[in-house]
Design a protein that fits this description.
Blueprint (H helix, E strand, L loop, with lengths): L30 H16 L5 E2 H8 L4 H13 L3 E4 L4 E4 L1 H7 L9 E6 L2 E6 L2 E2 L5 E2 L3 E2 L2 E2 H10 L4 E4 L6 H8 L3 E5 L7 H4 E5 L5 E5 L1 H8 L2 E5 L6 H4 L3 H4 L4 E4 L5 E4 L5 E6 L10 H4 L4 E4 L4 H6 L4 H15 L9 H14 L1 H10 L6 H12 L12
Parallel strand pairs: 10-17, 10-18, 11-14, 14-17
Antiparallel strand pairs: 1-3, 2-3, 4-5, 6-7, 8-9, 12-13, 15-16
C-alpha cells in the first residue's frame, strides 16, 4: 500500500519559499489572513508555557485549515514572536510575542479563548491603564474583575480591595474606570485633601479649589481612596455621608457649601493589612458591601516572562508570609521589576536585586528561597571592585 504524500499546505510539508517572495516582518496581514493571525497569536499568548503542535492550535481556535495556521505560525517565528521547534512542527510564544499580542486588534469577538476541562471561556484582551501599561483581567465571580467592578458601580455596591502591596489593586481599578480620581492615603492626609482648600492666585488673594471627592461627586466619577486604612479615622469620616443614602457632603471651609452626588459617582478603597499603621475600623469596613482579597496571579507572572524558578520561590515565600514565618514576600510588582532588571543587567543581577529590595529582616529568607529554587548562590546587589 502506498502512503500518500501530505498536501502542500499541510504542517508536515514545509516547502521552500518561492524566490523573490516577500517575507513578512510583523505577521499581521489584512483581511482574513490578519484575522487568523490574531487568533493564533492570542491563543499562544493564552498558553505561554506550552509548546503546541499545529493541529492542536488549529482545533483550539476552530480554524478550517491547518496549513493556513502553519503559515501564520511561521510568520510569528520570523518576527521573533514564537519559537519554532521541528520534527514535529511545534511552536511556543516568546516574551516579544506576548508583548505584541497585548497590542493586537481583537479577533472578533473582543475576547480570547481560554480552554478548560468544562468547555471554552472567553477571556478579555488586556486593558490599557492611564500610564500606558496593560492590565490583564482576572477571574471574579461569574466574570472578570474589570467588568465586574463596572457592574458593581452601576448597582452602587462599594468595594474594599485588600491584600499585600504590589498585587495589582490600583492597576485593576485604573483599568476598570478611565474616569478615576485618586486620593493616596497617608497618616498625614487631612479633610482638605478630599474637600479642597484655598490656594494663592497670581496677583494676590486666594481662591477655593475643590478637592477630588467634590469633583467626583459633581461629575459622576469614581474616587479611589488608596491605602485608606493609613488615613486617620476622623478624616475618613468625611466620606460617610457621601456613601450612604444622603449622597452629600458639606464644606465648612467654603461657607458650609453643600455638594450633592450625581449619577455615576462611586467610591472604591484599597487596604494593605500588613502595612505598619494600617487600621481598618468597623465604621470604614461597614461602608463597603464587598471586601475583595487581591493576591498575586502566579500564572500571569509566568506569562509576563518571570522565570518559573523565581515564581516558585515567590510562592514559597508567600506561604511562609501567611504562616508568620517571614515578614515579606515578593508580589507581582516586584516580579515585573525583576524582569526589567534581568533584561537590562542580566539574570544574576536581577536575582541579587530581588534579594536586595527585601526588608533587612526578611532578606535571609528571600535569598534562601531564591537560591534553593534557582540553584544559584545569591547575595544582595552591590558594586564590585574596580
Amino acid at each position: 500500500m502506498t502512503t500518500p504524500h501530505p498536501p502542500a499546505n499541510s504542517p508536515q510539508h514545509d516547502p521552500a519559499p518561492t524566490s523573490g517572495a516577500a517575507t513578512p516582518t510583523t505577521g499581521v496581514g489584512s483581511g482574513r489572513s490578519g484575522y487568523l493571525y490574531r487568533k493564533v497569536a492570542l491563543h499562544l499568548a493564552d498558553h505561554p508555557d506550552q509548546v503546541l503542535k499545529v493541529g492542536e492550535i488549529t482545533r483550539a481556535i476552530g480554524a478550517p485549515s491547518s496549513g493556513a495556521v502553519f503559515e501564520a505560525l511561521k510568520k510569528m517565528a520570523a518576527a521573533g514572536h514564537a519559537t519554532h521547534h521541528r520534527n514535529p512542527h511545534r511552536f511556543q510564544i516568546t516574551q516579544a510575542g506576548i508583548d505584541a499580542a497585548g497590542t493586537l486588534p481583537p479577533a472578533a469577538p473582543r475576547t480570547r479563548s481560554h480552554g478548560s476541562a468544562g468547555g471554552r471561556q472567553s477571556r478579555p484582551a488586556p486593558v490599557p491603564r492611564p500610564n500606558g501599561t496593560l492590565y490583564h483581567p482576572r477571574r471574579l465571580g461569574r466574570g472578570w474583575d474589570v467588568e465586574e467592578l463596572r457592574r458593581l458601580r452601576t448597582q452602587q455596591v462599594p468595594v474594599l480591595l485588600y491584600g499585600p502591596p504590589g498585587t495589582g489593586k490600583t492597576a485593576m481599578v485604573e483599568a476598570a474606570f478611565p474616569d478615576l480620581l485618586t486620593v493616596a492615603g497617608t497618616g498625614d492626609t487631612v479633610v482638605d485633601d478630599f474637600l479642597g482648600s484655598y490656594n494663592p492666585v497670581p496677583g494676590g488673594g486666594y481662591q477655593f479649589v475643590h478637592g477630588p471627592l467634590v469633583t467626583a461627586m459633581r461629575e459622576g466619577r469614581v474616587l479611589l481612596v488608596d491605602d485608606a486604612t493609613l488615613i486617620p479615622p476622623r478624616v475618613l469620616a468625611v466620606l460617610y455621608p457621601a456613601m450612604d443614602g444622603r449622597g452629600t457632603v458639606t464644606i465648612p471651609a467654603h461657607g458650609n457649601e453643600t455638594v450633592q452626588a450625581v449619577d455615576g459617582f462611586y467610591i472604591v478603597a484599597g487596604h494593605n493589612p500588613g502595612v505598619h499603621g494600617a487600621v481598618l475600623t468597623e465604621a470604614l469596613a461597614s461602608r463597603f458591601t464587598v471586601h475583595l482579597h487581591v493576591t498575586t496571579d502566579w500564572d500571569l507572572a509566568r506569562q509576563l516572562g518571570v522565570p518559573k524558578p523565581v515564581v516558585a520561590a515567590a510562592i514559597d515565600l508567600n506561604a511562609d508570609l501567611a504562616a508568620g514565618k517571614t515578614v515579606w514576600a515578593p508580589q507581582l510588582r516586584e516580579l515585573l521589576g525583576f524582569v526589567k532588571v534581568r533584561d537590562q543587567l542580566g539574570m544574576s543581577a536581577a536575582l541579587a536585586n530581588l534579594a536586595g529590595i527585601a526588608p533587612q529582616d526578611a532578606r535571609d529568607d528571600v535569598t534562601a528561597a531564591l537560591s534553593r529554587h534557582t540553584g544559584t548562590p545569591i547575595t544582595a546587589l552591590a558594586l564590585g571592585k574596580r
